[in-house]
Amino acid sequence: AQKITQTQPGMFVQEKEAVTLDCTYDTSDPSYGLFWYKQPSSGEMIFLIYQGSYDQQNATEGRYSLNFQKARKSANLVISASQLGDSAMYFCAMRGINTGNQFYFGTGTSLTVIP
Amino acid sequence: DARVTQTPRHKVTEMGQEVTMRCQPILGHNTVFWYRQTMMQGLELLAYFRNRAPLDDSGMPKDRFSAEMPDATLATLKIQPSEPRDSAVYFCASGSGPAAQGAYQPQHFGDGTRLSIL
User: Fold this and answer.
1) pLDDT at B100 (0 to 100)
2) pLDDT band at B3 (very low <50, low <70, confident <90, very high)
3) Which chain B residue shows the shortest CA-CA distance from A49?
4) What are the phi and psi torsion angles at A15 (to 5°)?
5) Is the pLDDT of residue A101 over 90?
6) How far are the Cα atoms of A20, A106, B52, B73, B101 from residue B98, in angstroms, in the given order?
7) Shortest Cα distance from A87 to chain B (angstroms)?
């Protein structure tokens, strides 16, 4: 079975500082993809970044980077130079080769950026 | 940018009424998902389709919920009769199957339907 765990219900970060949101996963799939989504207070779910299990390098998208540690089964999201607009819920998700199209989501982390 | 379109954005209705939510997936996407999000339960998968065929609807209360894809450009989620406990935000998402070995495509979400059953 696939499982995504986000252990931080809420996080605070000072504006302009970096923050790491934790995500661990459990899967027996030999191949899988890991995703992060942002949900601001307006409610939409926004895709941020993707990491494939076979990728040799950590994914980066602008101020977002993914600290992928395959042996530890962790895929932490790092947001650099936090902005007030980064305040939102963040969800980690996974899909695997044996689960086809289905995605598995964590329970989310609420990030608040303090001015 | 291509987007998943959901209608209506908001719906308020009385208990017992039928509710129909619609979703237009991104052109070319072959999978469609319906999710329900509440504060208590978080994000729950209700049903999903691949190439318009239902693959899994185990998360959906069968007695009152139904999901269909009459064509590739339209997915519907119906609740009949609706109950106050159905109040939630319902998201539709679309995506593609796995690409090359080891490469997976993200789901893209619509803006959701905020449903309130009085």
Assistant:
1) 56
2) very high
3) B106
4) -50, 140
5) no
6) 28, 21, 17, 21, 8
7) 18
- Shortest distance, CA A18 to any CA of chain B (angstroms): 25
Q: Which residues of B touch A (CB under 8 A)?
A: 31, 33, 42-43, 45, 48, 50, 55-56, 89, 91, 93, 95, 97-98, 101-109, 111-112, 114
Per-residue model confidence (pLDDT) at position B98 = 62
Which of A45, A50, A91 should be substituted to probe chain B, the one whose Cβ sees the most B Cβ atoms within 10 Å?
Answer: A45
Q: In what order do the strands lie in the sheet with B19-24?
A: B5-7, B19-24, B74-79, B65-71
- Say if residues A53 and A32 touch (Cβ distance below 8 Å): yes
> Residue B86's CB: how many other CB atoms inside 10 A?
20
Q: How confident is the model over A67-79, as pLDDT tens digits?
A: 999 999 999 999 9
Q: What is the DSSP string of A6-71?
A: ---SEEEEETTS-EEE--EEE---SSEEEEEEEE-TT---EEEEEEETT-SS--EETTEEEEEETT
A52: which strand partners?
Answer: A33
